[in-house]
Amino acid sequence: MATVEITSHGSTIALDGRRLRINRADAASAHVPIDDVDFVILQVPAVGVSGAALAALASAGIPVLLCDDKHLPAAWLHPLGVADVFDPDRARRQAGLPERTRDRLWRGLVIAKIAAQADLLSRRGSDVAARVARLSGEVKEGDADNREALAAQLYWPGLFGRDFRRRGDGPIAGALDWGYAVLRALVCRSLVVGGLYPAIGLHHRSAGNAFNLADDLIEPYRPLVDEIVVQAAARDPALPPALWKPDLAALGEIPVELDGKILRARAAIGETIASLARIIDSGKGALALPRRIGGIEHAGRMASDVVDGVL
Q1: Are 3 and 305 contacting, i.e. CB atoms less than 8 angstroms apart?
Q2: Beta strands in 129-204 (DSSP E)
Q3: Mean pLDDT of 70-92
Q4: H, E, C per residue of 81-94
Q5: Which of the listed residues 77, 100, 125 is the one where a domain comes to its end?
Q6: 38 pLDDT exceeds 90?
Q7: C-alpha angle with apex 249: 194 to 263, nearest 5 degrees?
Q8: What pTM does this model have?
Q9: For the segment 204-225, what is each residue's pLDDT rounded down to a tens digit?
Q10: Where does a domain end: 45, 77, 109?
């Protein structure tokens, strides 16, 4: 699958049959089959996209990420459902999921997230890895004692140094935000394809958030982004975008261990979502969650995933 990222001002995207025709002022046109597209990133604001192209992307369940003049995520264009996969009856079951089940599932997501954070810290040689790992074993139903936040207080300084502030405005925070936006797009698309309604969350339930469920399910996969950024920062603390954007755009290819199998992240996310759909339909079962996030040095990026001159 391809991540289409538009980086040139004045570019246009139009529909040509079942393909996107991408015209750029500084290069020859490129054609990308819609069926091969995972999501579209408009990194610069001065891009023209036809209504027909947007409608075709929406029909295929493909989100579009809009960035501002600082190349940071500004808005989403995301389909709320695809007619041939979206089931209103399942949406009602999803909305009516018992509170106890929601708390149990959220506990599993938090445990998996903290365990993945501890594993990344351990591979980076951090002396707080063991303390973070212990917190993963202390998570209660619904994370009532907020072990997720306690782990974060150890995790971020352990990964990026004691002066790092996650809510800061430095290059690390910016790269993380950009990566999480790409990851969120991947989760959102998988939710739509999996027939779940993105706004109906487990733990996140904001009335103004159309992607509450994506914000739940993204949690154990966030270290995919963290690892790419920490490795880039080790090479150059200034973090020029060329150092991390290609890897973040391709994070769906990073290997993940899930249920004893090694899968690409995109496939693992799909398995997690499919397991949630089964729980919603049957009222029982456990989420399929990642047990280990593989190192990005093992990510097999295939030639078919890259559109020459676009990504």
Answers
A1: yes
A2: none
A3: 69
A4: CCCCCCCHHHHHHH
A5: 77
A6: no
A7: 50
A8: 0.76
A9: 988 888 889 999 999 999 999 9
A10: 77
Per DSSP bridges, beta strands 37-42 and 64-67 are parallel
| Tokens linked to 179 | 């990566």
Which two tokens mark 300? 């097999």
Q: Token pair for residue 147?
A: 């072990």
194 Rama sector, left if φ>0, alpha if ψ -120 to 50, beta otherwise: alpha
Strands 261-264 and 64-67: unpaired
Nearest 5 degrees, angle CA 248-CA 159-CA 229? Answer: 15
Q: How far apart are CA 293 and CA 311, in angstroms?
A: 24
In the chain, how many domains are there?
Answer: 2
In a domain, 39, yes or no: yes
Amino acid at 189: R
95 exposed, middle or buried (CB, 10 Å; 0-12, 13-18, 19+)? Answer: exposed
Q: How far apart are CA 44 and CA 70, in angstroms?
A: 8
* DSSP symbols for 5-39: EE-STT-EEEEETTEEEEEETTEEEEEEEGGGEEE
- Give which of 265, 252, 250 is closest to 311, Cα–Cα: 250
- Token pair, residue 164, equals 């790092």
The 10s digit of each residue's pLDDT in 250-270 is: 888 899 999 888 898 989 999
For 124-130, the CB contacts below 8 A with 24+ separation are: 124/158, 124/159, 124/230, 126/158, 126/159, 127/158, 128/154, 128/155, 128/157, 128/158, 129/158
Instruction: Kindly state whether residues 65 and 115 are assigned to the same domain.
Output: no
Could you tell me if residue 195 is left (phi over 0), alpha (psi between -120 and 50 degrees) or otherwise beta? left
| Residues of the domain holding 126 | 89-305
Give helix 222-235 / helix 171-193 axis angle, nearest 10°. Answer: 150
Alpha-carbon distance 291 to 120, whole Å? 12
CA 207 to chain centre: 21
| Tokens linked to 204 | 């996140």
Residues 103 and 42 in one domain: no
